[in-house]
Each structure stands twice: as C-alpha cells, then as structure tokens.
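Model it.
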Amino acid sequence: MSRDSTDILISSLARDLKPVRPVRPLRGEILRVAAVGGAITIAVVAGLGLRPGLAAVPGWTAFVAMAIGLAVFGLGSISAALAFARPGLEGRGVALALGSGVSLLVCVGIAAFWLRAAPSTGDAVWGGARELPCVFFSIALALPAAFFATYLAASAAPIHSSWTCVLTGAGGTALGMVAAHLTCRTPGAWHTVLTHALAPAFGALLLVVPITLMLRRWQLTAQS
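Modeled.
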C-alpha cells in the first residue's frame, strides 16, 4: 500500500471518529450531589421542623449520632457509585463503600449503646407497621439526589453499572433519610436508630431497577 493511499485511509477513519468527552472530576460531582441532598434537607426541616421531644430522655446524643451516620453513609455511597463509573477508580470506590458502611455501623453502635445506658422509656424496639411511613418518606426524598447521581454516572463511563446502581439507591435513600430523621414524628427512640439505619437497604432494593433503566437510557443519550 502506497503512502498516499495510507494517508487517505487514515483521514477517512479520522472523519468517522467522534470526539471523546472528558470525564468530569469526581470531587466536583460529589459536591454537586451533596448540594442537592443538602438543599432537600434544609427545605424539609424548614417546612416541618425538628423531631419533637428531643429535650427528654434519651436526649440528643443518639439522635445526632444517627444523623451523622446517615449523612456520611449517604455521601460515601454516592461517592463510591460515581467512582465505580470511572475506569481506574474501582479501588477508591471499594474503599468509599466500605468506609461509609463502617461509619454507619459505628454511629448505630454509639446510638444503641446510649439508648441501652439511658433510663428505659418503655418504647418497643419494633413498632410494626408504624415504622414503614418513615422509610417510604425517605425513599421519596431520595429521588432527586439519586437520579441526579445516576445522570452524572451515565455521563462518565459506568462499566460497573450494577455497583453504581445499588450504591446510588442506598446512598440516595440515606441522604433522604437525613431529612426524614431530623423531622421524624414516629414515636420511639429505637425507631430513629434501627428503622432509620435499615432504610438505605430498603431503598437500594426498591430503587435499583428504575436507576438501572435510567442509567442505560442516559448512557445511550450521552453516546448519541
């Protein structure tokens, strides 16, 4: 093949290539999702007010520990989901997922220890059906942050889409639960620990399918 024909072939192939979109920095996208979750929390707390009765036993300690644990777990899981959407950052995604999970467990342990040490209030550990509205409320509040994180993941290169979707569902629900936790009206101190801690798992199960479908759709849109 002559040099001229080689140059023509290369030029022809180059014309068919599409420019590669740069992947936005991970830290900036994490901050954008955090801003969405923070705005929702502020709006909900401003509209509904804080959970009543915090001045009574067992007080603020368990309540604040759970709020911190949910916030750290939510932001850490979303960060891990976005990291898994970037080739080469899988190790960071694993570290973020494990770190956020351990943080939530530590905060649950602190809250549970405080409740066990405080004078008994006679509250049941599990209140049955009355536990569920708070969970569904947190999942509803999770949708803006979770779907926004899904959109950001689709604009990157989510080769580990299953991990991205599960972590986005769990992290988004945890961020939604921060607002639900701060304003929760369901009686019972144990409710704010056990039920609120389990909400991200329920959110991941319920949201993984719609998040997966949205991720695939937005991937196709980004590639077109």
